[in-house]
């Protein structure tokens, strides 16, 4: 019973993440960045897609799972993503996820169980919601109305395997592709995390924050002066001391 409930809970989790993303764009940069971070962190987990595919294709037997390793160059590496400008990074991410959606449509034909297909539909919905948030974030970047830079020719998601592959090889290629997808999303999450750290640093060192802190110190200083007790002089103490 526990195993049958798990896919449904994952589908609900995917739908929950997708719902706010499919609405209108948020104009709050920190809020939108937080959504992208959470989605990327969720999508990197293999139990959202790869484990389902391995199980449905019988690759969890006889050590076949060990062959599910990403092909070099199938997806952009973390280092390659970090070298991109923010705008080109978002465009590369959007393009790569578009290719992932096409590949998932092809892999869908190899998944027989309706329950697994339901979960795969949730995964695709979440990717579309993530892509929507990517477009929203691109609009918040400086110079969003300017001419966009060309997308770099860095390695992207590999195309669908040729139909000449036998069934086993096709399944293995699908497994390798999904392994690369999860690794790619982990790298994406790390890049977004760096964006968040950069935002925190800029907030701490912004002149506006410095002015606010200075004004707050002045207010506290004035309040402390008002709260200081007045020292009353004893009667007659204002007169000079009697002469000798």
From TrEMBL:
Signal peptide: 1-25
Cellular compartments annotated: Secreted
GO MF entries: cytokine activity; growth factor activity; oncostatin-M receptor binding
GO biological process assignments: immune response; negative regulation of hormone secretion; oncostatin-M-mediated signaling pathway; positive regulation of cell population proliferation; positive regulation of inflammatory response; positive regulation of interleukin-17 production; positive regulation of MAPK cascade; positive regulation of phosphatidylinositol 3-kinase/protein kinase B signal transduction
GO cellular component, one term: extracellular space
Keyword Signal: yes
InterPro entries, A to Z: 4_helix_cytokine-like_core, Leukemia_IF/oncostatin, OSM
Annotated protein name in UniProt: Oncostatin M
Organism field: Canis lupus dingo (dingo)
